[in-house]
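Hi everyone, sorry if this is the wrong subforum. Our group has a chain we'd like a structural model of before ordering constructs, and none of us has done structure prediction before. Sequence below.
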Amino acid sequence: MFHPKIFENSRPDGIAVLEVAPNAEGEAGGLRQFVPLRRTELFGIVAGPLADLRVVQTFGYSRAACDRVLEALYRFPLPGDAAVRGVRVRFGDVEIEAELKERAQAQADYDAAKAEGRQAALATRESADVFTLRVAGLKPGQDIVIETRYVQLARPEGSGWSLRVPLTTAPRYVRSDERDSAAAQGQPLAMLRDPGHRFRMEMKIEGAIELRSPTHALKTTASDGGVTVELKEGEVLPDRDCVLTWQAAEKSPGPAFSLFTHGDAQEDALYFLAQVAPPALASSSSGAEGGVAREVTLLVDHSGSMAGAKWEAADWAVERFLGDLSERDSFALAVFHSTTRWFRQSIVKASQKNVADAVTWLKSARDGGGTELGVALEQALRLNKTSGERARHLLIVTDAAVSDSERILRLAEAESASPERRRISVICIDAAPNSYLALELAEQGGGVARFLTSVPEEEDIVTALDEVLADWSAPVLAGLQLGVDRADVDAAGRQVTAARGESRVDLGDLPSGRSIWVAGRAPLAGKQGADFTLRQAKGREIAEAKVVAGEFPALKALFGARKINALEHLIGAGYHGEELLKRLERLGYSQESLAAAQTGSAPLYAENVRVEAKAQAGALLARESLRYGLASSATGFVAVRREAGKKVEGTAVVANALPAGWSDEFVGGVGVGAMAMPSFAVMQSLMPSAPRGRSMGRMLHSVAESARDLFSAPKMQAALSPALPPLGQEKEYAGPRECEVVVFTGKVNFQGEQAILFDSAASPSALAERGRITGLVLLRGLKAGTSPGRGATLLIYVGDLAQPRARVRIADLVRQGERPLNLARSSGDVVRIVLDAPADEQANLALLELRLKYVA
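Answer:
Right subforum, don't worry. Here is the predicted structure as tokens:
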């Protein structure tokens, strides 16, 4: 059975401890034990934009570890835009295909099997990208293998492609009026720095060249028509998303228009996937968009989950961006956490004084709290717009660790209908981001979503942010439409209009760095295929294609997934009454298809709005989920073994890995907000990061003292031993040593366009062998009366002397004084700093004094 207090903590108001709960009789003594999820494996093939994948999770433990029959609970992530098509379960030698049923029935079947001592598995969807797996009947010495099959889209990125595989899920801030929503249940049940299970991968990517990963070292093998990819280390800690990028063998110099189709004769339907990818565009350092002045609104996340390197990087990037605005531009700036604070309550001109005042204000805004992204976005969209022709943008810098995605997307959807819309872009900083929200927000908002890791071993966040902001305002193709030579085309949530004997699907605008795609269904009408035409605003034709119905069954699943996500959005976004009916009709449903009639008066409270929306559309969601054979919040995959066995004697929760780059202060309870304090097990796992000057042993004793209501004294004593030393024998934890090192002072001697300012191989005693570079300070850098050129750049190498880990413009250092960095250095890594400057700027850089901030 569940420990009652721990069960409560597994809901959105807390993070559960990992334990095997005592049985009903209440055993005394003994260690609480973790049920090992031994490994997660990913297999599959990627052909064009379609990825057909299998996630295989193996559970098991030895009799020496535990001699009881257990139930395991695990919350794991899948891509939010994926179509989850099936679950297969293997109990030892017995293999069962799970059946998709309405959620209440699936839960009842699972509970009955568990009570009867039969092995069973239940997979349910909590939020768009988080699933819960329950496995009853785990026996010592027997492996239980769960295989989940899904389809997702690879996304064009620049001139290549990318695929993001989530491996862990982070805690998400939950508003008080969202606690009973479906999405709010998508929290990790427990989190540990090392949860004990590992991840491996083996995939084939057809037509790929230059396959890389910004997150993991890869092992690649050429195969027929493509590349087989594995992780170089074999198995890795699943503490960050696994991202793959590659170039296609064939590249398009202009916008690429791709079509894939599937004919379903039984339904008389042609399913299609149309994708428009942008051409590779040169970035613009000026930031101007076609000579048009910019009106920019910046929302900067200062919530607790951004603590540490993410916060510093975000502030630096915003400061740099403001400094690059011209006098004809205008801006608004806000920081958000539990509340939203504005630099000014209106949009102001980007004068030198306003920019300087905004930077000073930003640096003073050091308070933090929960992640009220939706409140901040609504305020930003309600600001009065400046008059005249403007390129209007809204940029959000966040980790998107929130649960109220549906209402946030509703705001973006409403803004997209404005004649002078602001384009909403997201820079999402995290090793395990809420990628579904970021991508959908950019999709609805007509902007761009970019993902940056917060892991110092992988990249410097600020350098990556610099690169994003450099091409953020690149040109777009506006007002795209897809014409299909049929009536009654359903485009899974996009606006479709009839014109001149065809259906026209509104695709919106094509920004640089992000593709537009639409999954749709058209009648076959006795034909073998269909004609598709891509047009820009005012009817200018860009591309056309005549296609014959192909054999891509996954397209039906992708279309169904879009329909299901659209219904989930309507239920969670706060629509009700006539507005809900109108939007259901826009999705292709008649009022007769609704589960309940419209009520006479609109509910006042958010909880009741969701109840009404679920009553009206919940049965429709379940019906569509069963029709397409796909998971939704209204259904569940359940597999039950016929043979009876021993009844479950305890329940264990499987932990997620804490995402790399998350601040220990946040997880340790500082600024946690609605996520609540982590459990004792989480605190114990993070205790090496305790504040300086505190005794680790005394801190653990303090935790133990305050947790008497959760644990019996014998079990607490056993759980702490041998990690907890006796009172009086604790060692003081001194913490990391911070220092500031002068790495260069004096005259710069250029060789061509470069000068080496520092090389740790030549000065081995300057820096400790292992540590982290946290900042760069320029004390003297220009001749009196001169201004910095925009070409002079510091290149910082760590380990790899061929590729710099960070690039810092001298002009930014002169203007801002100090540049935050987050670069990890391992033993043996050479640190080298090189000044790169055009010949006409070198005279102004004759004398420099440069310092590194370093934590050893």
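For your construct planning: Residues 1-33, 281-290, 667-734 have pLDDT under 50 and may be disordered. Residues 193 and 658 are 5 Å apart (CA to CA).
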